[in-house]
């Protein structure tokens, strides 16, 4: 029983280390006048909109550009996360799930 508790503690420690490493990563993407920055915790840390996107009547284009920038940033960050996890030894063997 204590062996399993140690394994879970080790797993939790690895997860915390991985989370802190990923938090240091940052991705910035641009889409039609919208610039979006996302960190490794998948939090949007900055949004910048060009002046011409703020003109009247461009609301739907702005919304679409924001959605595209977010989707692109998410995909790029997921690739970065996968690479970091691979560098750190991949996913550990979890007892009962392997």
TrEMBL record:
<dbReference type="Pfam" id="PF02575">
    <property type="entry name" value="YbaB_DNA_bd"/>
</dbReference>
<keyword id="KW-0238">DNA-binding</keyword>
<protein>
    <recommendedName>
        <fullName>Nucleoid-associated protein, YbaB/EbfC family</fullName>
    </recommendedName>
</protein>
<dbReference type="InterPro" id="IPR004401">
    <property type="entry name" value="YbaB/EbfC"/>
</dbReference>
<dbReference type="GO" id="GO:0005829">
    <property type="term" value="C:cytosol"/>
</dbReference>
<dbReference type="InterPro" id="IPR036894">
    <property type="entry name" value="YbaB-like_sf"/>
</dbReference>
<dbReference type="GO" id="GO:0003677">
    <property type="term" value="F:DNA binding"/>
</dbReference>
């Amino acid at each position: 029983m204590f062996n399993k508790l140690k394994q879970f503690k080790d797993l939790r420690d690895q997860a915390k280390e991985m989370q802190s490493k990923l938090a240091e990563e940052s991705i910035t993407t641009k889409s039609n006048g919208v610039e979006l920055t996302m960190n490794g915790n998948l939090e949007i840390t900055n949004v910048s909109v060009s002046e011409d996107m703020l003109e009247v009547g461009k609301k739907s284009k702005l919304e679409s550009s924001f959605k595209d920038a977010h989707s692109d940033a998410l995909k790029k960050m997921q690739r970065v996360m996968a690479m970091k996890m691979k560098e750190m030894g991949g996913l550990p063997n979890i007892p009962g799930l392997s």
